[in-house]
Amino acid sequence: MKTKALVITGFGINCEEELAAAFRLAGATADIAHINEVLEGDYSIHNYDVLSFPGGFSFGDDLGSGKVMANKLKYKLLPNKNTLLQELRIFLEEGNFVLGICNGFQFLVRLGLVPNVGLKFEQEATLTQNDSGLFEDRWVYCKVNPDSSSPFLHGIDVLPLPVRHGEGKLIIKKELEEEVLNKNLHVLTYCNEDGKPTTKYPFNPNGSAHQIAGLTDPTGQVLGLMPHPEAFLSLFNHPNWPAMKSKNPDIDKKGLGLKLFENIINHISKKQLKKATTWVS
Questions:
Q1: With 0-12 CB in 10 A as exposed, 13-18 as middle and 19+ as buried, what is 41?
Q2: Which of 94, 117, 243, 249 has the greatest number of beta carbons closer than 10 A?
Q3: 161-183 as b/e, with b when 16 or more CB fall inside 10 Å?
Q4: Number of domains forming the structure of the chain
Q5: What is the 3-state composition of the chain as percent helix, strand, coil, each rounded to the nearest 5?
Q6: How far, CA to CA in Å, does 251 sit from each of 63, 142, 229, 231, 233?
Q7: What positions carry a catalytic annotation?
Q8: Nearest to 261, CA basis, from 8, 17, 28
C-alpha cells in the first residue's frame, strides 16, 4: 500500500507542485487540493497519511504570515460542524503526520500544532520579520538535532536548503523556551558549513531564537520548518553542484531534501506493514 499525501494549496500558496513532486519522487501518491475543497468536504484529510502545507504567500501575508489561513482552519466549519483544527487533532490521534514548510510552518505555529509543548493546541510561538529587514532568498545550512524524535529527519546531520522568506524570525514564549529545548523540539537549527549552530548573519537568515529553523511537537508527528526541502530534490538543484561533484565524483545525485520525504514514507510503510502483520496473525 502506497503512502498517501495531501498537499494544500490556494489563496497565494505557490509551492504545491514542488511539494507534491517531492512526495511522488519518494514513492508516495500525492493529491493537491485547494483549502476550500477540504473545508467544503470534497477532500477528507482522513483519507491520507500525511497532510502538508507548502510555502507561499497566503492572503498576501497582509496581516502577518499565515495568520488569515490559520484562522480559517481554526474557525471555518466543515460540513460535519467540526473545524479543520478539530479534525487535525483527530488526524494526529490516529497516528498520522503533518508537515508545514515556510508559510506552512507559519500556519502550524499559529494553529498551535508546533511546538505544542502542553499538547493543548494553543499558540506558543510566533514568527516575525527577519532581523535583516530583507526578504531572504538564498541557501543556508541546517543542523539536525541528534536527539530529535521526528521520523522526518532520521539519519540526517547537516542539511543545506534554500530559504525564501521575509518573516522567519521565530519567537517562543519565554516561559516555554527551556521546555522546548529540554524536550528537543528544536529539531533544526541554522548553522555554518561545518554544522556549528550560530546566531551570526548570514548563516542565521532571520535572527530566530536559539537559531531555530524547525520545530516538532512532543509526539514527533508534526514538523514545521522555514527552509524548503522540496527545493532540493536533486543534486543539480544546488547552486554549487559542480564543485560538489568535482570534489566527490560518486556523490549521490539525489538532493538531501528528498531524504526527508523518503524518511517519512519509509516510516509510515513500516507502520502499515506492522499493523497488517498484527491483523493477519
A1: exposed
A2: 117
A3: bbbbbbbbbbebeeebbebbeeb
A4: 1
A5: 35, 25, 40
A6: 44, 20, 18, 18, 14
A7: 102, 228, 230
A8: 28
Residue with grid cell 500500500, as numbered in its chain: 1
For each successive 10 residues of the chain (281 residues), what is the average pLDDT? 95 96 98 97 98 93 79 94 97 98 96 96 95 97 96 97 96 97 98 94 96 98 98 97 94 96 97 77 53
Q: State the pTM of this model.
A: 0.96
pLDDT value of position 281: 53
> Which residue segment(s) compose the domain that 181 sits in?
4-280
104: CATH = 3.40.50.880
